[in-house]
Amino acid sequence: MKQTLLQEKYPIYILELDKEETSCRGVDDIIAYFRQKIEEHPVAVLIGEFDHYAHTSSLEDGKIGEGISGGKNIVFCFGKELMSPKMLAVRPRSIGVAEMDGHFVISFLEAPNPVANASMEEWTLALRNPVPA
What we know:
The protein has helices spanning 27-40, 52-58, 114-125; strands at residues 2-6, 10-18, 45-51, 70-77, 93-100, 103-109. By secondary structure, the protein is α+β, with helices and mostly antiparallel strands. The protein has a single domain (2-127), classed as TATA-Binding Protein.
């Protein structure tokens, strides 16, 4: 898993995962896996899913990068405190899953809460192993 700055200002985590490295066969399988992790978490709450690929494909002037054949986000929140109204700017969380030729790209913005960030990193890295049905 790599940590990088997107557009020189957004700290993101990225995992490029060859399709042979996971038992997940498509974007929907990975999203279902994250949904299960969120639902099992004692604090996290699922908000929804967004099919970014379908949305962009439906636009008359929508553009999709070369090699991207699918892309969804799962949206959720770990927030168990709201000590400042400014925290609303960095919530909720989202994990993006893109399907490319032969591999997946899973990415998320670094969370201000280290425990939440560690959970997302752990969930993502566990995709390298066979995912239980």
